[in-house]
Amino acid sequence: MGVEDADLVLRAATEDDLPGIAELYLATRAAAVPEMPPIARTPDEVRHYVAHWDLADPRAREVWVAEDDLGLAGFAVLKKDWLDALYVGPDRQGGGVGSALLDLVKGVRPDGFGLWVFASNAGARGFYHRHGLVELELTDGSANEERSPDVHMIWPGAEPIANLREQIDATDRELAEVLARRFALTAAVQGFKPRGGHLDRDAAREREIAERMARHVPGLEVERVARVLDVVISEGLDRWEQDRS
Question: By the 8 A CB rule, do 89 and 72 touch?
Answer without folding.
Answer: yes
